[in-house]
Design a protein that fits this description.
Layout: H1 11-43, H2 51-63, H3 66-71, H4 74-94, H5 101-139
Helix pairs in contact: 1-2, 1-5, 4-5
Length: 143
């Protein structure tokens, strides 16, 4: 006994969810960038380290994904879900440092927001692509 394929949702159902999840993912991404930049450039005592170097090391891996995030590229969101886990771990570790609990909590919150929003953005975007492809192929079927 084989399982029947579950029907895909309609585009009317998917489009508003795709837009909302992309906005939430962008909010998490840009929030993480802002958190890292503001705290390390202006607030944290770096014990004599050059703030430009510290901020560059923290932000460069995230900024690599910026063009794809800005245009809404689906695969970029999926790949950043892997990379953002490092910032989640950094946020959890930082939240145990006395005096940095709020900063660590903000890092955790922004990474979780991005991860969950990007996860559903990728899922719903690929579902919408499948719906569009099925509609196009149904129009070109002879018969």
């Amino acid at each position: 006994m084989s399982r029947a394929d579950k029907p895909l949702p309609t585009l009317d159902y998917l489009q508003p969810r795709i837009r909302a999840s992309r906005v939430l993912a962008a909010l998490g991404y840009y929030g993480l960038l802002a958190c890292l930049f503001i705290f390390n450039a202006f607030i944290d005592d770096l014990h004599g380290a050059n703030p430009v170097v510290i901020v560059s090391v923290l932000l460069l891996p995230l900024l690599i994904f910026l063009p794809g995030i800005a245009i809404g590229h689906i695969r970029t969101h999926a790949w950043l879900c892997f990379a953002i886990n490092l910032y989640f771990i950094y946020g959890v570790q930082t939240s145990f440092v006395p005096g940095k609990q709020v900063y660590g909590g903000l890092l955790v919150a922004t990474t979780v927001l991005y991860f969950l929003a990007a996860l559903v953005y990728v899922r719903w975007s690929y579902q919408a692509q499948r719906v569009r492809n099925d509609a196009v192929s149904a129009r070109h079927q002879p018969g």
